[in-house]
Specification:
It is a single chain. The chain is of the alpha/beta class and 312 residues long. The protein has a single domain, classed as Vaccinia Virus protein VP39 (Rossmann fold, 3-Layer(aba) Sandwich). 38% of the residues lie in helices and 21% in strands. It is built from 10 helices and 12 strands. It has a 7-stranded mixed beta sheet with strand order 7-6-5-8-9-12-10, with helices on both faces. It has a 5-stranded antiparallel beta sheet with strand order 1-2-4-3-11, covered by helices on one side. α2 packs across α5 and α5 packs across α6. The chain is globular and about 60 Å long.
């Protein structure tokens, strides 16, 4: 079947932006030519059978437990490899991106033809969100920053902004130390457990600070309340979350049923979006944006966006 490219127009539709806004957001680092093809009916059926088989029979790791050991191992391995390597987006690619060529796009499965299709499309989506919401802040704090790849994107896009990355794995702080030294950016790391958040040493964030999570709150499962209350107390100027948002799936959709079942089996983030809407209804938060981004890997969509502001 003939290949297609993920165009500026496609990215604009996925993120709710205009083509000119997407072009501007991606100007700092032009994106790869991201090619994909449609699946035949037989291929689509085979993929559905594969996905259902994994969900039904595989022993998948359930999130939400207070144990950073798997991340200490993963980020520690990556930190060792970066000692003698340049800091690049390729080098910072987390190991959980396994390179599956089949992705979810606009309510169907497609096969990526560009190596790393999902990873690089996901980077483009993040940059568009960052460009929309993060201008004008003097400091950005990313919680659950992992390898620091989002901080590298932010350092390129906002070179005069102070960047702090937190993670519960000490190995992540080693990665950020290496990154800051090699790229010369104002990036610092702190250890922080989102499940049991301690008071921020410097006190409330204030209007000049933005908070970011990307595929981090998903790991809290249903144990997100302590972190949400921490953010409410900290009073940041804006909180941006790029996460799998369970409540945005269409419960009546045959295509979404796979993602819903996978999300539930892994124990990913649930309840946070209704919490924010309840906060908004009682006047203690303002919802700035709430968007389903119809893109993801083989099993679910992890790039949906909710942006909010704590109110006194």
């Amino acid at each position: 079947m003939s290949p297609f490219s993920l165009t500026v127009g496609d990215l604009a539709r996925l993120t709710g932006r205009t083509a000119s806004q997407v072009t501007s957001a991606l100007a700092f680092r032009p994106s790869l030519q991201l090619s994909y093809r449609e699946l035949t009916a037989a291929e689509a059926t085979a993929v559905e059978v594969e996905v259902e088989g994994v969900i039904a029979t595989r022993d998948l790791r359930v999130v939400g437990g207070n144990d950073p050991s798997v991340w200490e191992r993963g980020w520690g391995e990556l930190a060792e490899t970066l000692i003698d390597r340049n800091i690049t987006l390729d080098a910072l690619r987390p190991q959980y991106f396994h390179g599956e060529p089949v992705c979810r796009l606009d309510g169907r499965f497609v096969r990526g033809l560009t190596p790393g299709f999902e990873y690089y499309a996901g980077l483009a989506l993040r940059r568009i969100v960052f460009d929309e919401f993060l201008h004008g802040f003097s400091r950005i704090v990313e919680f659950g920053c992992g390898t620091g790849l989002n901080l590298l994107l932010l350092a390129e896009h906002f070179p005069d902004t102070s960047l702090i990355g937190t993670d519960w794995a000490v190995a992540s702080q080693r990665l950020l130390e290496t990154m800051a030294a090699k790229v010369g950016a104002a990036i610092s790391g702190r250890r922080f457990n989102m499940l049991t958040p301690e008071p921020w040493p410097e006190g409330p964030f204030g209007e000049g600070t933005a908070v970011l999570t990307v595929h981090a709150m998903e790991q809290l499962g249903t144990n997100w309340s302590p972190f949400a209350e921490f953010l409410q107390r900290q009073g940041a100027g804006l909180c941006i979350h790029i996460e799998p948002l369970f409540e945005l799936y269409d419960q009546s959709s045959a295509f979404d049923k796979h993602a819903i079942r996978y999300h539930l089996k892994r124990g990913y983030l649930r309840g946070f979006l209704p919490y924010l809407n309840e906060r908004a209804a009682n006047g203690t938060a303002a919802i700035v944006a709430e968007r389903r981004v119809a893109f993801g890997g083989l099993y679910h969509e992890a790039y949906s966006v909710v942006v909010w502001r704590p109110l006194p």
